[in-house]
Design goal:
With 313 residues, the chain is of the alpha/beta class. The protein has helices spanning 3-16, 19-26, 30-44, 60-84, 100-117, 169-175, 223-231, 241-250, 279-292, and strands spanning 49-51, 56-58, 92-98, 121-127, 141-146, 154-161, 163-167, 188-191, 201-205, 208-212, 215-219, 236-240, 254-256, 265-271, 309-311. The longest helix has 25 residues, at 60-84.
Length: 313
């Protein structure tokens, strides 16, 4: 029995909850995964997994074994890296998931530089505004601009992302310019409704915090759509500054309520919890920090006010 291969198969089944998905990630057939698990259970004399036709979950013994197996595989990977990384360039497949707007507007223009630095890497970039599962979907690193929920994943903060309230000159001429957050209750709002706060907006000024439940006419999970609809005069939008910057410069959007600020989001690099970060993931995250982490916020608009690792629990 190949003990290491069996451990890898077992860990992938527990992480993904599926023999078929574990096989896809390891590029093995379902029957091969089943044989590895069966050999492992036979050698130990215990059942490690509860199985149904569609799902697999660890038994009590299996959960304890899984936690130790993750450590063992991490140590093996670290040992391999210790004797190879100093002599070799990163190579192999790096799978990255990123939000659509950030991917097209900010990440895309710099990817060629990363590829120039590490030509032996294959980079697979999946752009999606859906909250894909980094583990089950097999990503090495996932980029998120968000308020992160607690999880077992590791999240490294790259840079804060400022947000501002804005609307088109045409909309403001027809409906008036809000002077106080409470005025937003009388305006049509265009909202990104997939944050932890739901559709509520929090704006903070000298007179404290204001939580607003806007009367929204559009709710969408892509900020470029919000920007484009706001430019057409359909309402007030709370937008990441890097999304709105060009429209602000051209005068297609005007910032309002500038004495108030929304809590900034942040760009995070999220990856599975292993004790030793793989070289290709570390280099990619370091590249992001170098390119995007130099400014205090992303970006700084000319007419306006112009990374630490943490484990989420």
């Amino acid at each position: 029995m190949d003990k290491v291969a069996s451990l890898r198969a077992f860990v992938k089944v527990v992480e993904s909850g599926s023999f078929a998905e574990a096989g896809r990630q390891l590029r093995l057939s379902r029957s091969a995964i089943s044989k590895y698990i069966a050999d492992l259970e036979e050698s130990l004399g215990v059942q490690l997994l509860n199985r149904t036709t569609r799902h697999a979950s660890p038994t009590e013994n299996g959960q304890q074994y899984f936690e130790r197996a993750v450590v063992i595989l991490s140590e093996i990977e670290a040992a391999d890296q210790a004797v190879t990384q100093l002599q070799s360039a990163p190579r192999g497949l790096l799978r990255v998931n990123a939000p659509m707007s950030f991917g097209t507007m900010r990440l895309g223009p710099v990817l060629a530089d990363f590829m120039d630095k590490y030509p032996e890497l294959q980079l697979q970039l999946v752009l999606s505004d859906d909250l894909l599962d980094p583990v089950q979907d097999g990503f090495d690193v996932t980029l998120r601009i968000a308020e992160l929920e607690s999880s077992s994943l590791i999240a490294r903060k790259i840079v804060p992302v400022a947000r501002l309230v804005c609307a088109s000159p045409d909309y403001l001429a027809r409906h008036g310019t809000p002077k106080h957050p409470q005025d937003l209750r009388n305006h049509a709002s265009l909202t990104y409704g997939f944050l932890l706060t739901g559709n509520q907006w929090k704006l903070t000024g000298a007179d404290g915090d204001h939580w607003i439940q806007p009367a929204w006419s559009l709710c969408v999970n892509n900020a470029e759509v919000l920007r484009d609809v706001a430019i057409r005069g359909r309402g007030v939008a709370l937008l990441p500054e890097f999304i709105a910057a060009d429209a602000l410069k051209k005068g297609a959007l005007h910032a309002v309520l500038e004495d108030y600020s929304a809590p900034p989001l942040a760009l995070y690099a999220v990856y599975p919890p292993t004790r030793h970060l793989s070289l290709k993931v570390r280099l990619f995250i370091d590249f992001l920090v170098e390119r995007f982490g130099r400014d205090e916020e992303m970006p700084v608009h000319a007419s306006i006010a112009s990374g630490a690792r943490r484990r989420t629990k």
